[in-house]
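Hi there,

I know you've been waiting on this one. I reran it after we fixed the sequence typo, so this is the corrected version. Both the input and the resulting structure follow.
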Amino acid sequence: MRKWEDPALNEKLVAGSTLDTPLYKEVKRLLTRAVMAGEWKPGAAIPSERLLAMRFQVAVGTVRKAVDELVAENILIRQQGRGTFVAAHNRDRLMFHFFHIMRSDGGRETPTVEMLSFRRGRAEAEDAERLGIERGAALFRIRNLLSLGGRPIILDDIAIPQALFPGLTAQRFRQRPNTIYHLYQTAFGISVVRSAERLRARLADAETAELLGIKSGDPLLEIRRVALSFNDAPVEFRRSLVNTADYEYFSELAKSERG
């Protein structure tokens, strides 16, 4: 079997599938490592499939299959007539991939975000479980109030490990020029590629009711979201409380995810 060495990654790949791993999966793994290593920055174009096939000494179809999976996982983005790019976080990406609250009539609005608090804390049991860290590990805890149509609709409580975001301050977080995930990506080299969410109903307590301008005991949707980076590494645990009187949760599966 042929072997080649990728100078950028100093790794060898067997040309032809192994007993356990198809060849395109190996190409996918090396492409992911290149993105993680910063060989291609967020928003940058990756080389053409032909050039990648030459680099990896595999067929173009093998590269295409690897790229297809990375596109399906939102790590890469294809743009018709332009090429394939490393996914970069911006407001459009937030609305399309990560923000699932819309008006009951189907209309979508970009939220206005107000930071209510930023403090240091320690991981409690659920934080530790969701983030894969030790209980008591140092966290940043951020509370945001999100308004839609000029009304407060969502209360977000965010927990992120201090170890992943060294030097983060309340001022830096508040004055970010773009989305939270854009800050993670550009300032700390952490790309959120997908999220896992759990939903349940609950009733508003007095504090939440006051912040959302509703009555204590009114129904809310609670969303617990873990934001995941490459290789499903958790980077953020977020608990959102949503007033669904005029809004609802909507998420559409990609074709590859449908049964």
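Quick highlight: The radius of gyration is 21 Å.

Best,
R. S.
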